Amino acid sequence: MSSLNQYISLFEQNRATIYAASPEALNRLRPAALSALKQFGRLPGKRDEGYSKTSLEEMFAPDFGVNISRVTFPVDVAQSFKCDVPNVSTLLGVVVNDEFRPSATLLKNCPEGVTVDSLAAVAASDPEFVEKYLGHLSADRDAASALNTLLMQDGVVIRVRKGVKLDKAIQIVNIFNAAAPLMSVRRLLIVIEENASARILVCDHSQSSDYQYLSSQVAEVFLGDGATLDYCDIEESSEKTSRIAQLFVSQASDSRLTVNGTSLTVGHTRNEYHIDINGEGCDTELAAMAIADGSQVIDNSSRINHNAPRSRSNQLFKYLLDDKSHGAFEGLIYVAQDAVHTEAYQSDRNMLASADARMHTAPQLEIYCDDVKCSHGAATGQLDRNALFYMQTRGVPEAEARMMLMQAFMSDVIDRVPIEGLRDRLRHLVERRLSGEHAVCGDCAASCHK
Question: pTM for the full model?
Answer without folding.
Answer: 0.92
